[in-house]
Structure formats: C-alpha cells, structure tokens
Amino acid sequence: MKIPRLPRWTRLLPCAGLLLAGCNMTVLDPKGQIGIDEKNIILIATWLMLLVVVPVIVLVFTFAWKYRASNKSARYEPDWSHSTGIEVVVWLIPCLIILVLGIITWKSSHDLDPYKPIESNVKPVTIEAVALNWKWLFIYPDLGIATVNEIAFPANTPVNFKITSDSIMNSFFIPQLGSQVYAMAGMETKLHLIANENGTFDGMSANYSGGGFSGMKFKAKAVSNYDFEQWVKQVRASSSQLTLADYSELAKPSEKNPVALYAKVDPQLYHGILHKYMDGAGGAIAGNGTSFGPVCTSRNTLGVSQEVSMAAPATPAPGSNS
C-alpha cells in the first residue's frame, strides 16, 4: 500500500519547535505585583478578543464546508441581502468588548501608573538609574553607593526608581517585575516596582540605542533584608569611588561592561547629569529647583500639581562641557 506523502511545509514543524524552545516568556512569569497585574490585563484582553476571533475562524471553515460546490443540499439564496439578527450580533458583541476593554484600560492606567508609589508599610529603597552608552549606572542616594549593571534590593520592599539618560533615549525594563519606562537626557522619569519573592531578574534596555545595545543588560537581585545589608557592605568595601572625574571616564561609550561597585559616589552626580543638557531657555515642565536649576520632569496621570519656575537659568553641571 502506498503511504501518502505529507505536504512539504510540515517538514518545517520541528524547526519551529526548536525556535520556540529558545523563548523565555518572562513577561508571563512575573515575580512582582506590578508584573502580575499587567499579566492579568494581557490575559483578560486576549480572552476578550478571542470571543470574536475564535467564532470568526470557526465560521469561516463552517461556511466553506457547508457551501462547497459539491454540497447540493445547501440553501441557495442569491437575492439574500439582510438579517437583523446577524447585524445585532456582529455589532453588539464587539461594542460590548470595546466597552469592557475601555473600562479596564481606564482603571489600570491609573492603578498601574509608573509614577504612583506602591502602598506599603516598609520603607522604600530609592535608586537613581542613568542610561549610558552602553551600560547602566545605578546610584543609591540614601546609602551613598553606586553600581554598574547590577542592583539589589530587599524582596517585598517597594523600589522607587528615578531614571534619566546621559546619552540618547533608552528604555529601562525588568520584564519579570513589570513596566518599562523611557530614559531621556535632561528629563527624569519615575518607576515604582516591587519583587514578591527572592530571585535574580534580567534587566535591559528595551529601546535600540546603537551598536552596543544588545549588551546593555543588568541583573536585578531581590534578596532578604540580611542579604541586602551584606550586599551593601560588599559595595562599601570596594576600593573604587565615583567622583565627577571618574564618571567622565565611565560615561565614554563601551560595550559589555562587567559589574562595577563604588563605595562612594558624589552626592550631586545624578542631579548634575540630569541638568547637563539644560540651558534654562526651554519650555519644559519644571519641578522644584536645585542648585543646578529647575528639574525637568514629565507629568503623570495622578493629577498632582507641580510648581513651575523657569526664572533662574540652569547652570552647567559640575564636570560638564555645557
């Protein structure tokens, strides 16, 4: 007996399996509350859209089979042009889905606003993140330490990120903790995250920024309070310090930088980077000023009013050429 041959395209199925085996669905495997809430939104939106997609696909094959040329028993109505029942279904269901998605979007846009602090009885950890070519600088202002391409924080503790760039636009993203936020020169964006369990999570730039973009990655470690204290002691034991002169060298473009620890960092470094590209003539939204001039920030959806003052021009940051 002759065995029927399978179509040629079926030979590619094993290759597709190998390609999918390399996928790491980190966004759908969240380890923080923000990431969990965002995952739920993705799943809810997907299921709602499948309410339309699946019936349409089924009906396409059903109609193709029922009204095939060889089926002489199918009803033939060439003059048919309208059905009130069909019109109601094809308009009412999508409208209801859009309405539900709109409500979810409105609520989640405010609940998951990256600028909205996470409610907790635990004191948050503040980290100032600076995107460089092609590495990440992290400053702990409350601890007076800094790192490159590695951060650590206690699990179940809110982490308040203040993010800017000393280069072209980048995007700060820890997929398993949720919410990516852009990093832009002369502008401070904010992000609030929390890890629900201990673990080491991959962080990255999610915005193409040149030749070294693929290696612009870092590790985010959620640890116990004791391990975090030990990590801080390890950083403070480092022989390196991040002065303005050292930063000028660090800011030069480089690729695949190893983790670096700085026992001490200039307390005005982050603010100097933030104001490096400001001359006081722009029409940016300004928050409370510092000795370097007004801070350029972006508005959020919380409706919190901010004092705006561009009266005094920003002075060049220490060590900058502006």
From TrEMBL:
Keyword field: Cell membrane, Electron transport, Lipoprotein, Membrane, Oxidoreductase, Palmitate, Respiratory chain, Signal, Transmembrane, Transmembrane helix, Transport
Subcellular location: Cell membrane; Periplasm
SUPFAM superfamilies, A to Z: Cupredoxins (SSF49503), Cytochrome c oxidase subunit II-like, transmembrane region (SSF81464)
Cytochrome oxidase subunit II transmembrane region profile domain span: 19-116
Keyword Acetylation: no
Record field: transmembrane: 41-65, 86-106
Domain Cytochrome oxidase subunit II copper A binding, first and last residues per copy: 122-234
Its membrane topology: Multi-pass membrane protein
NCBIfam families: CyoA (TIGR01433)
Family classification: Belongs to the cytochrome c oxidase subunit 2 family.
Protein name: Ubiquinol oxidase subunit 2
Species per Swiss-Prot/TrEMBL record: Cupriavidus basilensis
